[in-house]
């Protein structure tokens, strides 16, 4: 009986049903033969190329999303435009809060407190 780390010489792809050499499959540690079920070309075809932004609702290419390795698809749920706009809104809101605290503490003149 071959060891679990041994890979077969030939394997049948689950998508195209072609019998291909083991080099045509990526590794998969938890499978019985140590290889993925789909050959590399079939696996590439199944990858999503676009997704819908959760914020603006527009469908955009994956390159329009920031990288997030914690998510299944490897990209954030908001597109970069929405992500950056929210970051700018948050920064402005926090700056206004900081200026208000400085004004209330008497460390800032009234006319400069709201000019930011």
TrEMBL record:
Top-level lineage group: Bacteria
Name this polypeptide is given: Stc1 domain-containing protein
């Amino acid at each position: 009986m071959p060891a679990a780390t041994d890979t077969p010489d030939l394997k049948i792809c689950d998508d195209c049903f072609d019998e291909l050499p083991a080099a045509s499959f990526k590794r998969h540690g938890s499978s019985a033969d140590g290889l993925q079920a789909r050959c590399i070309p079939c696996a590439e075809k199944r990858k999503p190329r676009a997704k819908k932004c959760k914020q603006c609702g527009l469908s955009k290419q994956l390159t329009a999303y920031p990288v997030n390795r914690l998510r299944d698809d490897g990209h954030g749920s908001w597109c970069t435009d929405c992500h950056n706009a929210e970051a700018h809104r948050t920064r402005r809101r926090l700056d206004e809060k900081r200026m208000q605290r400085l004004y209330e503490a008497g460390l800032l003149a009234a006319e400069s407190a709201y000019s930011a």
